[in-house]
Structure formats: structure tokens, C-alpha cells
Amino acid sequence: MKxxxxxxxxxxxxxxxxxxxxxxxxxxxxxxxxxxxxxxxHPKGNMKELNDVGKYYKEKGTLEGAPAKK
Length: 70
What we know:
3 helices; mainly alpha
């Protein structure tokens, strides 16, 4: 019974962590490779969405020829 009282909160915390830590496809390595900050491809404050530059990079895999950031 004592082990169960410890197991349930740990399991709950683990489930909450996994539920809120979404899968990330963009990485800091991409940012270092392109020598650009994350906000080049993502709207400021919303790293889950892509702007026009980010959509271009996702499609082409490069920033060469990408539309100008507004």
C-alpha cells in the first residue's frame, strides 16, 4: 500500500510531463546550422507555428531563396 501511494503521484507527474512536452521537429542544431535565431522561422512567442520563412525551410530544407522576413 505504501508503494502505491508513492507510485501514483510519480506516474501522474510523468504523464503530465509527457503530455505537455510536445514532439519538436525544429532543433537548436538547425538554428546553429543556419546561424539564425528561432524567430527566423517561427512567430515570436509561438514556436509551434511556422511563418513564411519556416514553411519554405520545411519544404526546401534551406533558407537560400526564402521569402524576406517581415
